[in-house]
Design brief:
Elements: H1 2-13, H2 16-36, H3 46-55, H4 60-85, H5 90-102, H6 110-116, H7 118-122, H8 124-162, H9 165-168, H10 173-185, H11 199-206, H12 209-231, H13 234-239, H14 246-278, H15 303-331, H16 335-355, H17 363-367, H18 370-374, H19 376-381, E1 385-388, E2 391-394, H20 395-419, H21 448-459, H22 462-474, H23 486-498, E3 500-501, H24 504-518, H25 520-532, H26 538-552, H27 555-575, E4 580-581, H28 584-591, H29 594-612, H30 617-621, H31 625-629, H32 636-667, H33 693-722, H34 725-745, H35 761-766, H36 771-796
Antiparallel strand pairs: 1-2, 3-4
Helix pairs in contact: 1-14, 2-12, 2-14, 3-8, 4-5, 4-8, 8-10, 11-14, 12-14, 12-15, 12-22, 14-15, 14-20, 15-16, 15-20, 16-22, 21-32, 22-29, 22-32, 23-27, 25-26, 29-32, 29-33, 29-34, 32-33, 33-34, 33-36
């Protein structure tokens, strides 16, 4: 059997495309992982580390008490700095702050307080860093100190819920679930929790792209191990040999499982190393319940044990998918049908996991599927019981049991089907040697469309790549609630007041608000005078002073909104266009995220290359090109049908990847101003034509699609010139994908004149005097399409290029 295993490994090793995909997907995985962590706020500063060292050995309640005293001082200090930034006089600030300082257990004078923190006042940036570190530690300590209370409250909640009629019936799932929850968490009261950050652990836990890349790789390996020999007619011969049944079946399965393990180690190992280098994991001996994201975890795991369990669950989920894929390719002799069923399982699993509500009676379908198993972070970090025939069963334990049972069942079924005698897959069919009548072709298909679609979707694994594009696109479908920072909240308050067409009522609103801000200092002085004259009580003074201070915080947001409104008003008079006020928050999401656009362009180019690389190369590889050229429709007609399919695939890929962004814009950001003039978006104020936002978006999508078609025609020409799949992939990546990588990493190095421009059109149109360049760019694309199609056509038809 060892010889069979060596043979199967040798077969995979000699597939150049496997190594190319390995390096390509591994590099893309690490690149995407690092980019995903750029947005993470990480307070691993010198101030944080010194505070962590100081308070780690202290009792949580004592540490929290000391830090809250410092936080209170810093809060007052922050208010002083803010008052100075908005122009409040020093006398008013002193009186305002002194009232707060008088409430200290040991009152302190304003001057003494400012002298104590004179360094922080002079070095505001360092003060903000220290303030952030203190807030981070307080948040961690709040989680730790409140955990026993959190566990203890479960029993009280259970008792109160039992008094409600719908939860009081003992033979129901609700009642049993309440009792089980209390029992499961009862032993966690005495956990010893410690300080430490969670960013590195969360980074490796939540990154989903690795799961998708490995699913794709496992499917490709399964094709080479199980489907290719059957399609080449070798499986029947192999099964007739001495070791051609059970031992051959075992060696193939073992090679796939070992390959899955190898891929698992290098892909997730890359994530783990990158997260440790970027964030670190802190003390791996502390319990995960020390971190807010794991508060609902029922298992008392340390960080190191958690990481082991996390990756073991992912490994077993991938092994399960591998054996399911093995079984399907063995059970169905039709490769197309096996692909469709595999894709259907993945699609249904993803939809069930994404859209079935957790409390639905269908929640077993949500949690007992491949994508749920791969999301082992959610499985461990969030307590959840499934409703199985009225009894609560832990999601974690039921998942482990089901994964183990399915792996064993699938392996045994596969071995039995592969090795059974009398199988259609393992015996020669006598009907193959019978003389067929003249009308035998009427039972099959000889249409070029059907054959070319089959080759690109199934032989070239295009269906898998389309499924991967669909899954990657869904990562940008964000249905979560939109949360604002303080600055965004203050701005958005005024943006909602001003939204819609510009008119006199909004001008009046801005003037009234401006007067309120102009009189803010006067009102503060007046309030202080009333307090000093004993016209209002200290409590009233404090409340009204806080109200004015809170109102003052809206001023930066007001200024931003007012400047935007005034700019639009001037533009409206200048261009005689009825403009709308549109919040910059949704418009920035769709129009100003050039990094996202380039990243999507990179993903698109890689998927497009992998989809189309073998469309023409396969005829050159198997020597069929000369035979095809000799047939009636084997030249021009075949070439144009192949090209049409390639363009259709390019359009479908773009649809899968880009549509979720616009769905997110409409759903999460509640964007409705589709018919407003595009000049309402400030960065497009110089756009020369009067078109709506939706028309502008369609224009950009048409340019992107034209870019995609130029990429397709370039790939088709490369395939004709190089005639080898691996060389076509490599040259395609260098021509189409590498410029996007350089544009992403070093924007100034490759600013223009590449296919990356087509995926970064929003940025180009935002630049002054860019319309001419865009026109020239589109014209160049059309020329590229015409020239490359013409040359590729002549090469394919074996005509000289005169």
């Amino acid at each position: 059997m060892m010889q069979l295993i060596k043979y199967e490994f040798n077969k995979l090793i000699h597939k150049k495309v496997i190594f190319f995909l390995l390096f390509l997907l591994l590099g893309l995985n690490i690149f995407l992982f690092l980019q995903a962590q750029k947005e993470v706020v990480f307070h691993n500063t010198t101030e944080y580390q010194s505070l962590l060292t100081k308070y780690s050995g202290m009792e949580p309640k004592q540490a929290l008490s000391e830090l809250k005293e410092i936080q209170n001082d810093y809060s007052i200090l922050s208010r002083i700095l803010y008052n100075r930034s908005i122009g409040v006089t020093e006398a008013v600030t002193q009186n305002d702050i002194q009232i707060l300082l008088d409430d200290y257990p040991v009152p302190i004078a304003y001057k003494a307080f400012t002298q104590r923190y004179s360094y922080h006042i002079k070095k505001e940036a360092e003060f903000q860093t220290a303030y952030a570190a203190i807030n981070e530690l307080i948040e961690q300590l709040n989680t730790i100190s409140s955990y026993p209370q959190f566990i203890g409250s479960m029993e009280k909640k259970a008792q109160s819920m039992e008094s409600v009629s719908i939860f009081a019936k003992k033979d129901t799932f609700a009642y049993r679930n309440i009792q089980k929850t209390v029992l499961d968490f009862n032993d966690l009261k005495q956990l010893s929790l410690e300080l430490g950050q969670e960013e590195g652990i969360i980074a490796v836990s939540r990154f989903a792209f690795t799961d998708y890349f490995l699913l794709l790789f496992i499917l490709i390996l399964s094709v080479f191990l199980f489907a290719e020999e059957r399609e080449n007619g070798l499986l029947t011969i192999l099964k007739s040999t001495t070791n051609g049944r059970l031992k051959l079946a075992g060696s193939k399965l073992l090679v796939l499982l070992l390959s899955t393990l190898f891929l698992f180690v290098i892909f997730y190992g890359g994530n783990l190393f990158s997260a440790k280098d970027r964030f670190g994991f802190g003390d791996t001996g502390r319990f995960i319940q020390s971190m807010a994201s794991f508060r609902d975890a029922e298992m008392p795991l340390t960080v190191s044990h958690y990481l082991i369990v996390l990756f073991l669950l992912k490994l077993f989920a991938l092994l399960l998918f591998a054996v399911i894929t093995t079984l399907l390719f063995t059970l169905f002799s039709n490769t197309k049908l096996a692909f469709l069923i595999n894709g259907g399982i993945l699609a249904c699993s993803y939809l069930a996991y994404s859209f079935i509500y957790p409390t639905s009676y269908l929640n077993p379908l949500k949690y007992l599927n491949i994508f749920s198993f791969l999301d082992s972070y959610q499985m461990i970090a969030y307590y959840n019981n499934l409703n199985l025939f009225g009894y609560p069963v832990s999601r974690l334990s039921s998942s482990i049991s089901l994964i183990g049972s399915l792996i064993i069942l699938c392996i045994l079924t596969y071995l039995w089907i592969f090795s059974k005698s009398g199988s259609k897959n393992s015996s020669l069919n006598p009907a193959l040697f019978k003389r067929k009548g003249g009308n035998h072709l009427s039972n099959g298909s000889v249409h070029l469309w059907n054959h070319e679609l089959f080759k690109i979707l199934f032989s070239n694994k295009g269906l898998l790549l389309l499924l991967l594009a669909f899954l990657l696109g869904l990562q940008y479908l964000d249905r979560s609630e939109l949360f604002y920072t303080d600055a965004q909240y203050y701005y958005e308050y005024y943006a909602r007041q001003l939204s819609g067409k510009l008119d006199e009522s909004k001008n009046s609103f801005l003037e009234n608000e401006q007067q309120r801000f102009d009189h803010l200092s006067v009102n503060i002085n007046l309030l202080l005078e009333q307090y000093n004259n004993h016209e209002i009580s200290k409590e009233d003074y404090r409340n009204k002073s806080l109200e004015l201070s809170e109102f003052a915080k809206f001023y930066p947001g007001f200024q931003t909104a007012k400047q935007q409104y005034e700019s639009l008003s001037g533009l409206q008079e200048q261009k005689d266009i009825s403009l709308h006020f549109i919040s910059t928050i949704p418009s920035s999401y769709i129009f100003e995220d050039s990094n996202r656009d380039l990243l999507l362009g990179l993903l698109y180019s890689v998927l497009l290359i992998l989809c189309l690389c073998n469309l023409f190369c396969i005829e050159y590889k198997n020597g069929m090109i000369n035979l095809i050229r000799s047939t009636k429709n084997g030249r021009g007609k075949l070439f144009f049908k192949k090209s049409f399919i390639a363009y259709a695939i390019a359009a479908l890929l773009m649809l899968f990847i880009y549509i979720p962004i616009y769905i997110t814009l409409a759903g999460r950001y509640h964007f409705t101003d589709w018919t407003a003039p595009i000049q309402s978006i400030q960065i497009f104020s110089d756009f020369p034509f009067k078109i709506s936002i939706i028309q502008f978006i369609v224009l950009i999508m048409m340019i992107q699609l034209t870019t995609a078609f130029a990429m397709v025609s370039t790939l088709l020409l490369l395939a004709q010139l190089l005639k080898k799949q691996t060389l076509t992939i490599l040259t395609g990546v260098l021509t189409l994908s590498v410029p996007m990588i350089f544009r992403y990493i070093v924007p100034k190095l490759v600013e223009r004149y590449s296919f990356a421009d087509g995926f970064n059109m929003y940025r180009h149109f935002s630049e002054q005097n860019s319309f001419l360049y865009v026109c020239l760019y589109v014209a160049a694309l059309i020329i590229i399409i015409v020239l490359t199609e013409t040359v590729a056509y002549r090469i394919f038809c074996n005509r000289n290029l005169r």
